[in-house]
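Thread: "does anyone have the structure for this chain?"

Original post by V.I.:
We have the sequence but no experimental structure in hand. Need at least a predicted one for the grant figures.
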Amino acid sequence: MKKIVILLGVLVVLVAAGFGVHEVSSSQKKESKTIVVGSQGSDYQIWQHIAKSQEAKEAGLTIQVKEITDGVQLNKATADGSVDVNAFQSYSYFKAYNSQDKKQPLAALGTTYLEPLGIYSEKYTSLSELPDGATVAIANNPANTARGLLLLQDAGLIKLSDDFDALSGVEKVKENPKHLVFKQIDDTTGPRVLKSVDAVLISNTVALDGGLNVLKDSLFHEKVNQRTKNNINILATAEKNKNNENFKKLVKLYHNQAIQNYIKKDFGGTKIAVDKPISYLEK
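Reply from O.Q.:
Generated one for you, tokens below.
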């Protein structure tokens, strides 16, 4: 009987120790979980840099960057959990996606930057020089068409109707004093059509690929304000993960000064940092 009691005691100790090891192992695994950040284009480059940075190590974050070039597929991968957080989309793109896929909505974690849309010309050095009947090339997809028209309105070239919205087109141009002629193009071809039109609206990503710096080479470009808030880029995750503290740390990490210095140097200051609460976008 005494031997049985001793054996039982040893078994209890071993089992308890086993549970203890399991708990420690699980805890360590949980703490060291790799955050998968899905991205594309220049954002993919930025997050590769962030993942390898000393700042990420100091924040206690292990980051793996996955490239998915299709925006819809990247959002779906985030919604189903194969990607934890994504970094590629504007707030307007995010809202449009959520309106179409209400079963697996995404949540915005925080803001990153504004890449200004610019008006460029090889024929003129200022907007005032644009002649009557000037041809202006503008993106042919709804979201970017609307964004371009809003920029032209901010530049004082046109006036839009009161019911203009994020998917409106040139039919909503209410006043066009210079009688601008709008030529709709694939927005990736902007730099290539510069010589054949009077002016062209080019997104910053495309402009950079074409060797243009929106802050130096455009005649007019977007500024950070309430009119451009929908164009501000964000970090997004699945709705169920919106309170994950490690995911939230990515926003703070992005705005770390050393990281911002790298982005400013590598992209010529054209990714304008926007460190605002999500409530700023929701107003």
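V.I.: this helps a lot. The chain has two domains: 35-115+229-282, 118-222.
O.Q.: and The mean pLDDT is 89.
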